[in-house]
Specification:
By secondary structure, the chain is mainly α. The protein is built from 7 helices and 2 strands. About 5% of the residues have low confidence.
Amino acid sequence: MRLAEYTDHTLRVLMHCAANPGRLITIAEVAQAQEISKNNLMKIVSDLARQGLLETIRGRSGGLRLVKPPSEIRIGDVVRGAETDFRLVECFDDTTNACTMTASCGLKGLFGRALGAYFRELDGATLADIVPPPRRPSKPDGAVIHIHAAKRAARRA
């Protein structure tokens, strides 16, 4: 099973917002940081706002931010909201199933149980569980402190 690129990008938008609490995030910032096109992000942000996960503020000082704390956003709910098809095999859809083995096959039950276990695992995790800790405060001149770069510089000295 593979998640759609849309779902991957949806999770990355939420993670980016969670990693930057207390400020508005712009679409341009997410596009650059996550290497996702602005057009794709516009649809994703619109869908997340409609689902009640993001607040969007228009205008020059606008941006987006999480509506709920990361600890209240379940990954399983996000994946269900972003994915459109969980039919792992043809027989998952009774309206289009043409498999001749359906009556005697145990595959649908096996995959159904596996999909249930998959979502139980995702439902047990929140955005807070998967997001990196918030960024460290900037130096007064606005330059971000990069810990790994500082360690490399110290080794060279």
